[in-house]
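Notes to self after the Tuesday call (sharing in case useful).
The group wants a holo model before anyone commits to mutagenesis around the pocket. I volunteered. Ligand is manganese (II) ion. Logging inputs and output together so the record is complete.
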Amino acid sequence: MKMTFRWYGEKNDSIPLKYIKQIPGCSGLMGFIDKAAGALWSEQEIKEYVDHVHAAGLEVEVIESVNVHEDIKLGLPSREEYIDNYIKTIENLAKYGVKVIVYNFMPVFDWLRTDLAREIPEDGSNSLYYDEAELAGMTPVDIVESTAKNSKGFTLPGWEPERLKDLERVLALYKGVAPDDLRANYKYFLEKIVPTCEKCGVRMAVHPDDPAWPVFGLPRIAHTQDDFDKIVSFADSPANALCLCTGSLGSNPENDIHGAIRHFGEKNRIACVHVRNVKYLGHRKFREAAHLSSDGSLDMYEIMKAIYETTPETYIRPDHGRMIWDEKGRPGYGLYDRALGIAYLNGLWEALDKGQKR
Ligand SMILES: [Mn+2]
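Result:
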């Protein structure tokens, strides 16, 4: 297992690389380059980024932000150009040591929350929060505007202004696109890119829908174990893998998270894991919790045990954290609570490892 940390780059993150290097047991980043969906990532910009991270003593074997253009998801004729760019980007990233690319196939929206800083009454910290009842009174434009307004000047992943300026137009294009249409477009994309991944030694890691159910009537096809069984069948290769995000998949109490890790880990279809706890507050209502099992609704010991026993060579990172100790930063991505999360997850791992070898 390699423990990593998400970092948004010198211009977009409040946390210096030096601080990340000082987190015990953190070997590197799940990295990010700020590029529009569909753009080609040049060798030069990748080299500069990777060299910069290496200079801080950290690895960057996982990249999270190669976003899939909507035309690919919609299956428009213009997808060919974007798929060509994607293939060249995979080749360019592989040249600089990248082994895993995290992406998603969610139409229009990446993750959604109705509050980016809901106070946790038990301790006065705050965290990202979702209540379907609050969403019911909002349009897609409302949620984009309120998220942008509340993100404290940071651009949130999936909410980049350039992606959302033509929100209404793109939403209209999805009218009449059924889940099976989206699956067909997804399969087409994977069939085109997986041979390049295999040649370059790169694994694609699809992130689950967050929250783990459809929103605004858009088709969503990645939020149950059954959905992922279909996805892994689209291209029968270890390069077609999952980023198993426990907090995203776990937002729906019906999903068995450690069961899903075992199921896909045993098939060698997990390329990396986002480990995060979530606390259920009611029907389709939850908040992000501290990593500790007893602070949320997920059993983090069983999650780490399933990883340890079925996919021990994977990359892990704490996904999000609460805002604690009056830290000012990007919602969900402060230093303190994520560093606490790493310390705890590493503790679980050491106990599993030593218990196994006793
Ligand atoms: Mn995640």
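Two things stood out.
The CA atoms of residues 233 and 289 lie 33 Å apart.
The mean pLDDT is 94.
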